[in-house]
Fold these 2 entries.
Entry 1:
Amino acid sequence: MFKSTILAILLPAAVLGLAVRPCANNAPVPQEVRVLDCVQEPCVIPMGGMVDMDLDFIADRASATVEATLDIFLGNFRVPYDLPVEQRNACNFFKGRGCPIQAGEFINYHLSTPASAPFADVTVDLRLQLTAADGSPLFCFRSSATIVPA
């Protein structure tokens, strides 16, 4: 009984979506963003730890390919960071499918990437965007994370 009560309390916290902010380019935002062990901004991530997120979106256009970009900002300064080459092809991280995608399709995208910052005890702004083959964004959102010592 006690274990099931604890599970009932903890389980909703593990699946709640994170409130995210739109990007300046007016791109759509995902329907839901779920970050492991984080339910509100800023997410707290140990230096060198993994950012593990799932998000759901509905494609507003068809595309043969989809590119992922993750930009990290410290104030107005863009931290020199790019997703690893193998993670830039977002098609490889669509749950149960790949590309091409069709307009109106529901898609789950999973990203698990190392936390990177120039130093610990800093809060950074993150911008994640998926871009269709024609160069237009399928979605874009901003969120923040505090990088702490490992």
Entry 2:
Amino acid sequence: MSGEQEPWVFRGGLTADLQRLIPVDSGNDLFAYKVPDAPTCKVFTIRPYLGSDEAQVYDVCNRTCKDGLEDHMPLLPELKNVYADRLVGPYVTLHPEFSFVVEDDAVIVGYACAAPDHRKFRIKQEIAWIPEMCEKYPVHLAQSTTSSVQECISHFHNFKNEVFVNSPTHPASMICSLLPSVLDHSVSKRLVTCLLASLRANGFFGVHAAINSTDSYTHAFYGKLGFSENTQDGVKGKIVMGRTF
């Protein structure tokens, strides 16, 4: 680390020694945890993503796809994973090595995934992900369904023409989500710390997250994780939030 960190950032003893080993140079804010409002005996475990976690990660994504909440509109069986296939599927399929999950005593309750180079990630999607999605979600399925599902299907079939974030300062992209039942705010900070450390260890020092301009909860969520709006690399209808580490 650079040595510019204030000494009060780190606790004493073993905790401080372990924090100094994490290669996140400017992520000191992620080590500041608020005491939970209510005592809890829940234990959360953060670990790398495994292929067997896909169904549970998809479930978390589907339950948080509408600005942190579930879309309660009933969907056809063939459309039940359309949100997850758009949002988190490409990350866990193409870059599982940069994917982490958090689980409680029973199931996975959150995830954080990243792609180290978003421009190359888009190329990989176009070659190895989008054709499969276009076959899985033909255009006719967009008829008589919600506007959100229509937008997802349109995304798959018009992927080539979409304008995407291409930021020299925040080249990596990420997505993070936790179930509303996770009330301990330190869980998301610890989860993102693991993700940023893995990116930095591979030579990447900036990451961005593109969210819908109407998603106030998600905007506040990333704000609490030290992300700030990046107006220079804006995309129509999206808010780009980035941070360096």
